[in-house]
Amino acid sequence: MALKRHHKIILGGLGTLVIVAVIALSIMMYSLYIQQMQNYNSLNDKIAELQTGTQTQINSLAANLLQLQNTTQNTAQQINLLKASASSDFSGIIQDSIPSVVTITTSSAQGTGFIISSDGYIITNAHVLADESGYLASNIQAITSDQQAHSARFIDYNSTLDIALLKISGTYSPLQLGDSNSVQIGDKVIAIGNPLGLQFSVSEGIVSAINRQGSNGQSDYIQTDAALNPGNSGGPLIDTSGKVIGINNFKVSGGENLGFALESNYIKQAVNQISAQSLNQTLIN
Hints:
- The protein is of the alpha+beta class.
- The protein contains 3 helices and 13 strands.
């Protein structure tokens, strides 16, 4: 049956409404999609911003922690140095230094020495190794702080500066030489040695003078009021940083607290001269 005109109008109107509704729904869904994408992108931007901010805060916190750690370490070092400078506590320096000091014994004498390399090179005064006739004594031994006796090999010596180089077997913690040019009158020091056979004795004092002239006619010596006695020869004179600034050499007989130590820069000169000639190497940089 053919549709009448009013039926066609009704159907045509419904089709138009459906198309309009579909278009409107599509526009609405597209708008929602656009809005969701904008929200998604905004959220991603915020997340990225938060991540960047968080990483920046973590980096800043790590830097602050590192700075705090360094400050704490520096403060601890300054406190230890202050203790030593104030003469209230040299015990830490002494405890660290004594294992590097040795008693030197020969067939005719006794003195002190100290280790300058991890493989057992030792320096002492040359006169400690001389017998009554002035020749090299026999049976040279180095006794470490654990009371172990080690046979010491004589390398060579510098007669002008009264420095001798020895070698023992084993691995050790050496003492470090400081810069004697920076030593000032009044600096606090300790001397470690074996005065009158009393092993590993420690005496404390100050630098009384610098560039004093020794029996060699050279102004190479630090004067100190730290007590030195027979047996201290060849032992280290140590400053408040734990470094050797001199090797205890002699005292003025008849005087009180008049000890003298060869300055560390001349020790380096003598040791490197000996090691270059006898070992073809430089022991102290």
